């Protein structure tokens, strides 16, 4: 399975990088995984609704340029469906079973994802009704994907 994490914004915090690197290393035994970091759109603090949409659209174009037509796209979005770790594991297992070998998880910038990206997404996944920094979501996501592979293989880790 080929998994991409397409994300807006550079990861600056060393502790998050270390955690993500650890899970990426562990995941490499189960799947080919890559993180694609795209620059966020520079914008002033106080944006109008129209300006926010323009920023999201520009970031969305960057995201979609990195996703091929045969990729199953899972957008991380607050309005997405919340799932248990076991359900995510089952979903990933079913995608593999039905020949979906390319999966892209998409994490938007601080304003979220554009309508275009949301329309392209095959699934929308929410980790919580709470808002998390998108850098922290990367760490949570790679840990959950790792956990899913462990669950699917019946290996110890999941509690």
Describe this structure in words.
The chain has a five-stranded parallel sheet with strand order 2-1-4-3-5. With 159 residues, the protein is α/β, with parallel strands linked by helices. GO terms for molecular function: rRNA (pseudouridine-N3-)-methyltransferase activity. It catalyses: pseudouridine(1915) in 23S rRNA + S-adenosyl-L-methionine = N(3)-methylpseudouridine(1915) in 23S rRNA + S-adenosyl-L-homocysteine + H(+). One of its GO terms (cellular component) is cytoplasm.
Structural class estimated from helices and strands: alpha/beta
The DSSP helix count reads 5
Termini gap: 24 Å
Considering DSSP H and I runs of 4 or more, what fraction of the residues is helical? 40-55%
CATH domain class: Alpha Beta
- Poorly predicted spans: none
Largest sheet: 5 strands, parallel
What gyration radius follows from the Cα positions, in whole Å?
Answer: 15 Å
Assess the beta-strand content as a share of residues. 15-25%
- Fold-level CATH name: Alpha/beta knot
Q: What's the count of strands?
A: 5
Order of helices and strands: EHEHEHEHEH
Strand order within the widest beta sheet: 2-1-4-3-5
Number of domains: 1
